[in-house]
Amino acid sequence: xxxxxxxxxxxxxxxxxxxxxxxxxxxxxxxxxxxxxxxxxxxxxxxxxxxxxxxxxxxxxxxxxxxxxxxxxxxxxxxxxxxxxxxxxxxxxxxxxxxxxxxxxxxxxxxxxxxxxxxxxxxxxxxxxxxxxxxxxxxxxxxxxxxxxxxxxxxxxxxxxxxxxxxxxxxxxxxxxxxxxxxxxxxxxxxxxxxxxxxxxxxxxxxxxxxxxxxxxxxxxxxxxxx
Length: 227
Known about the structure:
The chain has eight helices and six strands, in the order βαβαβαβαααβαβα. The protein is an alpha/beta fold. It has one domain (6-218): Rossmann fold (3-Layer(aba) Sandwich). The chain has a six-stranded parallel beta sheet with strand order 2-1-3-4-5-6, with helices on both faces. Helix 2 (54-72) packs across helix 3 (82-90) and helix 3 packs parallel to helix 6. The longest helix is centred in the first third of the chain and has 19 residues, at 54-72.
């Protein structure tokens, strides 16, 4: 991987660049130029999300893609959770070489999965994740749901080779989402399920294996010269 390659990495709803930065650092160490923008309203105070709509998130992602395309000609895209939907959308608009979708939401969490995760966190006295999420304005949640409904139609238009990865133990986005995505993308594709990972894939115990898998997928194919 060389600096003539660029990768745009998009974080999830209510999250931030920290969700994808470990992967970005891995790819940068391999010589790839990586950009991890902060989407509007995701500045650490979730209450600010009430001031933004899905159109703001889409526009911000498009602007970042435009800048990279102008500089590099074609780009790779990695989208985590809501960022996966945005990345899928961008892949229908810009010259995208490879697309990676991580824990991308189409089908929401099942009550059983959520209950199991909360029970495990209660046992560890660690509910910071859910206490943080409770600050999310309801209006922003509706915007997120509308974004899912509107952008999932782009999946069938994707032409770039696509790697889809999901955590089998994800309590936030049901793994059936990735199966749904896999079935609708017509481009060359691969579905990988990480058996011991939850939602925050780049921060999970299997993260290193995840990074190596993505690195190999994004590695430019070698050109064979006829003898």
